[in-house]
Each structure stands twice: as structure tokens, then as C-alpha cells.
Amino acid sequence: MSSFLIFFLLYIIRNIHKLTSCYAFAPLISRSPVSNYYNVQSNSKHILSSSFEEGVGKDTELPDSLEDAAMIAASSCYAFSIASGPMSRCRVDFDTSIGDETYTTLKSSTEFMQKFVSALCYESIPGLAEMRQDEMMRCANARSELRQIIQEEQVDRASITQEQDGIETENSSRKKQLEEIIINGGRDPSFKWTGPTARIYFPDEGSAALARRDWNPTASSADEALVPPCVQFASCGGVQSSFQDSSRDVLVFYFCPRASEAEYVEKTLYDAEDTLCDQLALTIFVNPLLVDMGVTGFGMAGRMLRERLIDNLQSTYYLRTLQWGALTRVWPKQFTIWQEDDDADGGYKLLKSLDRMPSNPEVEDIYDYENGISVDPSQQKGLGFLNALGDFVNGMTRL
Fold it and tell me: Rounded CA gap, 33 and 22, in Å?
């Protein structure tokens, strides 16, 4: 059984209990991350509006696994797109490297991206989840019928008459048909997706081609495809991307766009919004690094880029692991800082909850304050200069 089929089965199982739930955006209510995408089309705006109010000011929990993180991120992005309307823009940041630069950000977050894209497509694109359900049901029925035929063939072949011999030939033909259905994962080999599409822009043509080969959305067998058939691949500045038909795009992803691609990213984003208008539901930047000292600098060019594009992106999902814990956020909940603790439920304890993204020094300061390494200036009384001097010395010794 392929990893994609396992992922989709998990996706459905985690939605079963929501059939009786009044909420579609699960991360705002519980740890179960995926909304009920079967019924969300009719009353999603009302449900997600209620869920948004419930989520504001609440603490963000840590995910249970990478798949859990991907599905929570997808639900958060989908809820944001419904609440904000067409042509919304958001960002997703996923970094579990803990500062290890052995692999690039693109390489270390590729598996998350694959699962995140799949989950968001099933959330957002009409008919896609139902199509996959039909394929799985067709495959399950074929397995059941094939098992029944094999059991019937266990009868003593010595008693087979001429009439039964004809039945045996008919069964043999049917068995081949059923085996083909199972091999193809319930998908018609001639199937071609003609509905709305989701486009992923990779930093270069090489990474786009590699993902197209490995994720294989157009595989004749559904079990071999790691992403749905609606997914299209492009690259920032690639020649082939200029000739692709993007008229059916409803989701656009920019995966790890770098500062050197900032101009191309802006151009394609504005062109897509001008051309597709309300058809474009959401644009998602995943692990963007569009401002870099070596390319844009941190001066006027970098500041203008931030004002035009980056500062307007809503952070719908954030997860960064630290040497001693993690920082996370699910829109519209709070940013939360967690510390590893073997005595706490789940192995982590909550240090602080914030309504904004804390800077790196802030995160480290919060850890120091909570663990008695330094004194929180807002809590100290008197001897402010001496305490500040002590904190400075402690900070220098850790460098």
C-alpha cells in the first residue's frame, strides 16, 4: 500500500467523527486537524466564522507528527481563504532543522510540502476528494469480488462439468479485470483531470522536474501518485513555465522562493491575480526567503519588497523547532513557545503565549526567564542596572 493511500485513509478516518460536529475548522476546536471537506461547501462560511471567533486568543498546540502538521496547516489555510475571500495571500513556515544546515530548506521541507499540498487540494478543490473516494471504493469492491471468485474456485475441480468449464473461463476474464482495477488503485488508466488546478512554483527547473517525477500526479495507478492529479509544476524563471496553461488555477504555491526570484515571484503573482481574478482562491508562500543581504539587501530595496509583498502575508501556520523546544502558531490562534519536559503531557510544557511573532532574541529571553537563567525586567524591583548588567554578562558567556 503506497504512502499516498495511507495518508488519504488517515485523512478520511480523522474526518469521520466530524460528521456530527458543528465545526469545520478542527484546529480551532481540537487536535484533530482536518475539516469535514464533504459538507463544507454549503455552510463553510458560517461554520468558519464561528470557528474563527472560537480560535482568537487561544493557545496553539504542537502537532503530533509531520502528517498532522501538514493537515493542520492545510485546514488553517483553507479557513483563512474562506474568511478572507478570493485572491487571499498567506504564508506557511515549517522548519525542523534546529539550525542544522546539512540540507537546504527546500530539501528538509519537501515531504511536508507534498503532504500539505495534497491536504489543501482535497480541502479546496471541488470534486477531488469525492473522486478519490470513488477510486478507493472501486478498488475495495474489486478486492472483495476477486476474493469471492477465488473462494468459489476452491471447489473440487474433478467435478467440473462442461457448463462449469465455461463459467471458469468467464471467471478468468473477470479476474483479470478485477486485478487491473486493483493494480491501478481504482483509477481508469485513461483518466485525465479536467477540473480546477493547483500550481506549485519551485525555485528552479531542476527541483520542479524532480518533484514532478517523484510525486507523479498523473500516474496511471492512483496508489503511485503522491499528490492529486490537479497539481501542476512550474519554476521561478523557468522557460517551460511561460508556456503552461494556468487558466484553471485556483491555488498557487511558491515553495521556498529565494531573493533572487523575488522579481519573478511578484510578476507571476500580480499577473495571476489580474488574469484569474476571483477564480484564484489563495496564494501560499511556503518558507519564503525573499529578502537577503547578498541580493536585495536590508536597505531601501529590501524594505520596499517587504512593504509590497511580505508584510501583507498572513501567517496561517508556523512551526520552528528549537534546541530546547518549539515555536508554533495556527491562524487565528496565538503564537506559543514550548519547552521539552519529560514530566509534561506530550513531552512539552507551554512557556508563553503571544499575539504576535516573537523575534529570535525574544524567544531565547523567554526561555531564560522561565528557567531562572536571567530575570525578566518587567518583574524585577530595584537594582535594575545591576540586573541588566548581569543579564548582559550571561548572554555574552553563551555566545
Answer: 15
